[in-house]
Amino acid sequence: MKIETSKKRLILVDLDGTALQNDGKTIHPKTKEALLEVQKQGHIVCLVTGRPVRASLQYYHELGLDTLLTNFDGAHISDPIKREFKRLVFSINYDIIMEILNDEIIKDSIENLMLQNYDRVLIWKKDAELENFFHLSEIKQDAGETLIVGHPQENWKGPSTNIVLKLKGTKYLHRVIRSLGRFQDAVKIQSGVLYGVKTKDKDPILTLTNKNVDKGFAAEILAQYYNKDIRDVIAFGDQLNDFEMLRKVGIGIAMQNGASTLKFIANGITHKSNDNGGVGDYITRLLKGEEY
């Protein structure tokens, strides 16, 4: 595809599987160089990720950003540097959380669970997989964050941006999803996905968020905040949690390594994978006006 090059664009970038390489820790040098360069040219770059804030700030700072930061797939939007934008948190309310966790089928089907708000996290039991995915070791008590290990009915009060349910096995998946049907007016289910990365089939993980939250919703807020026509916004993603974002913006780019369904609705597909600097390669050529 080819775009008009005189406009200053809003560029939305997912992290895992998109800006980050397959190690989940490193931005490819080509992508980093390109995202730093487009900012010098006057374009605006925002990270839009399923990760919590603490697991994305490293990359936010590495890319020299001072823009709005979107976490939990749009459930949390903040302004880490300028602090001119009042934080938006779209939560699941406490009563719904307790109804879900007290459901007999769900109680009998889960191996572990997590609740998160912007300043605190509860994990029912110690769990290396969940702890690594959500960077619980990076919680800083002196920064006002709290980590709670214990039973949610006894230790949690108030809303949560998401609920993470780790099931005892695949045979429990459909029965839990059926039970969650009672709450479909309040929550949205992301099956087997953390940060947009598919987890092990052996122990399925369900992530629940506020029903109205997705990255497309966040894209509209970011475009409005920066006074950009949504049709001029560029977005990069690789998994189905990026679907609404790529569909909403005018220039949605799916990663070469991304999900087939995402590629079907995208305006373009990177020529290189995340492990080979696909975002950097594509955005550099696109903003030069090359047919690519």
TrEMBL record:
Pfam families documented for this protein: Hydrolase_3
GO cellular component terms, A-Z: cytosol
Single GO MF descriptor: magnesium ion binding
Gene3D superfamilies registered for this protein in UniProt: 3.30.1240.10, HAD superfamily/HAD-like (3.40.50.1000)
CDD domains: HAD_Pase (cd07516)
InterPro entries attached to this UniProt entry: HAD-like_sf, HAD-SF_hydro_IIB, HAD_sf
Gene encoding the protein: yitU
Species in which this protein is naturally found: Williamsoniiplasma lucivorax
Protein name (database record): Phosphatase
